[in-house]
Write a structure and sequence with these properties.
The chain is an alpha/beta fold. The chain folds into 2 domains: 125 residues, Aspartate Aminotransferase, domain 1 (Alpha-Beta Complex), CATH 3.90.1150; 219 residues, 3-Layer(aba) Sandwich (Aspartate Aminotransferase, domain 2), CATH 3.40.640.10. The strands form 3 sheets. It has a 7-stranded mixed β-sheet with strand order 2-8-7-6-5-3-4, sandwiched between helices. Helix 5 packs across helix 10. Bound molecules: pyridoxal-5'-phosphate. The site of pyridoxal-5'-phosphate has 13 residues, from helix 5.
């Protein structure tokens, strides 16, 4: 008997998550100098973490022999102050990805329906299928969530609805008023998972806290991986009612968030000037990429996030060609968008290089 005959069938139904390749791997495979490679594939912050976060992480490492605070006391209290909620309303995860999985553990049962956009962040489907629930995928409209169609897709069997705004991989945000109305319209047996991974890039992100305070079943998710530049340390958080957080706590491993990540995240929250600078630079970078793509005659999707879809015709071929030249971007064929690439906004110089390589690729065809 082999392992496959023993496996939980839900494991085999998992879609494959294709992460952006690390720089070292691309260098090894293609014989390139890692120092010359730029990675604009995973919506990371090209300006790195705040120096204050780096200093805090270094200092936390000195106590590396100790287990971390499993309850993330300081970070939860700091977040409670920032968001004017109770510390008992925050769950901290090993990236917001882990909280997506905790939500599956806590709430999904075989046969439940889970409504999500298509294309949307692939982990929603992954978690849904892992728990033998059914993914009800609602096509996007103009690259954003079709909230009316999503509301119409809800049945008595629906347990969860995933909405990311801005959405990944398209970068499009739904208007705040539409999101609030959608959240208000959901029946009481449905939990809205409102994924705000890129919300810090919006001028005025929608605020669902009044609905959470009013007892609506909403779990909002944020991350330190994007504007705070801490993707490698894996820290994300959710906020919801204290009851929802308690339930998520029951399926959480005791030391799920490491001490270095906790310290860095805490310090990052004290450097809003850094985040503000990144927000400004990102806006300029989006404009630069949009103008550059337009010059090349390439259609792009105006983005509210730190990445942008551009239609190059043959996404996989363009990805290969750029990667061979040391520029890693993201092909999105697995999201049903084979003609497109997803470009993460880099520094001004990185964006220039990316546009130059796109021009070169166009010329070589
Ligand atoms: C929409 C969305 N949600 C969640 C995540 C997960 O972020 P993390 O696990 O790094 O917090 C990502 C990462 O790319 C994302 O795009």
């Amino acid at each position: 008997m082999d392992f496959s005959s023993l496996v939980n069938p839900s494991v085999l139904s998992q879609p494959v998550y294709e992460p952006g390749k690390p720089i070292e791997e691309v260098a090894r495979e293609l014989g390139l100098d890692p120092a010359t490679i730029i990675k604009l594939a995973s919506n990371e912050n090209p300006f790195g973490p705040s120096p204050r976060a780096v200093a805090a992480a270094r200092s936390a490492l000195e106590q590396g022999q100790l287990y971390p605070d499993g309850g993330c006391y300081a970070l939860r209290h700091r977040l409670a102050r920032k968001w004017d909620l109770g510390p008992e309303q925050f769950v901290i995860g090993n990236g917001s990805n882990e909280i997506l999985e905790l939500i599956g553990h806590a709430f999904l049962r075989p046969g439940d329906d889970v409504v999500m956009g298509a294309p949307a962040f692939v982990v929603y489907k992954l978690v849904t299928l892992l728990f033998a629930a059914r993914a009800v995928e609602v096509p996007l409209v103009r690259h954003g969530h079709d909230l009316k169609a999503m509301a119409a897709a809800i049945t008595p069997k629906t347990k969860l609805v995933f909405v990311a705004s801005p959405n990944n991989p398209t970068g499009v945000a739904n208007p705040a008023a539409d999101l609030v109305a959608f959240a208000e319209s959901l029946p009481d047996h449905v939990i809205l998972v409102y994924d705000e991974a890129y919300a810090e890039y919006l001028e005025t992100p929608p605020d669902l806290r009044p609905l959470i305070r009013a007892g609506r079943k909403i779990i909002a998710l944020r991350t330190f991986s994007k504007i705070y530049g801490l993707a490698s340390l894996r820290v994300g958080y959710g906020y919801a009612s204290a009851e929802a957080v308690r339930l998520l706590g029951r399926v959480r491993q005791p030391f799920n968030v490491n001490a270095i990540g906790q310290a860095a995240a805490l310090a990052a929250l004290d450097d809003e000037a850094f985040a503000e600078r990144c927000r400004r630079e990102n806006r300029a970078g989006l404009a630069q990429l949009e103008a550059g793509c337009r010059e090349l005659g390439l259609e792009c999707v105006p983005s509210d996030a730190n990445f942008m879809l551009v239609r190059v015709g043959q996404g996989a071929a363009a990805f290969d060609a750029l990667q061979r030249r040391g520029v890693i971007v993201r092909p999105v064929g697995s999201y049903g968008l084979p003609e497109w690439l997803r470009l993460t906004v880099g520094t001004r110089e990185q964006n220039e290089r990316l546009l130059g390589e796109l021009r070169r690729w166009q010329g070589s065809r």
